Amino acid sequence: MPQKKIALIFLLLNSIFINFTFAQKISEVDKIVAKYPKSFDSTEKLADRIEKDFDSDYDRSRAIYSWIAFNIRYDYNAYLNPPRTQGFSYSSEAEKQQKIKQLNDNLIQKAFKSKKAVCEGFTALYQHLASLMGIKCEIIRGDSKISVRDIGRKTTSSNHAWNMVLIDKKWRLLDVTWGQGYYDSSKGRMVNDFNPAYFDTDPDYFFAKHFPDSGTYLGKRLSKEDFLNGPLIYNTTIENDYKIKSPDSGIIEARNGDKITFEIKNLSKSNQVFYVNKRNQAVKVQNPKEKRGGLEFQITIDNNVGEYITVFVDGNSVVSIKIV
């Protein structure tokens, strides 16, 4: 089966099953923010409302995430047809910084007023609202990993941006762009579906799907090779702490008759575990064993296994690997 068709199947299945899981993860902060107006006269008035309703920096940071995710939509048309880079001239460093600030302010206000943005707008608006509340926030740019086609990808260009916020002397990772929804390839449009998995995400999960241009996180060197060649994990994996213990590589060399061993944390025999073969048929895993707080099972490589194997748990995609 062609690679594009396989990727489409996996993305479609993931988008179908994603809604139920996250509908159950709404926090009390989210419930309050969901009742806010969709529009405010200014970012300052929105920040004032959040500061009034919530006492801690953690809840305020979550409230910013929730409001943006509920109300700002990903501008897929702008993603497909990005505007030409806007240049400018300057005669001094002060004038340069002033013009950069003006461009950033325009980006923030455009996202806030139009209710549409790509990741640059999401991250700039988040940072701006956090700064109005005295919360230290950074914008991080880098690479992202979202589909089976990214497993083993050779191109390494920067294509995404996210935020870090400093709360209680600890940096927290968040991606509000991914918090607002997902692209449904079957409908050819973005779907609004609030996703809390990318607020204060565990770094191990976060950096399985994000790689900063700096190559470091809090002074710790990260491996771009491990990022690109590792298994692809999904939102459900993060939300349910389905840590993938095996395989540790996303690229597996195998021949017909070889068995690929999977070990996934926080699963039991009560979970329905299957994969989809190249004929788009669901194949239930055989003889799974409970082991060390998780489930271990094997998938045998045969003529029905395609270029990719995606494991599903209770209808949700959890991990994909590439077979070569």
From TrEMBL:
Segments forming domain Transglutaminase-like: 111-178
Superkingdom of the organism of origin: Bacteria
UniProt key word Cytoplasm: no
Signal peptide positions on this chain: 1-23
GO cellular component: cytoplasm
The entry's keywords: Signal
Protein name: Transglutaminase-like superfamily protein
Species in which this protein is naturally found: Flavobacterium phragmitis
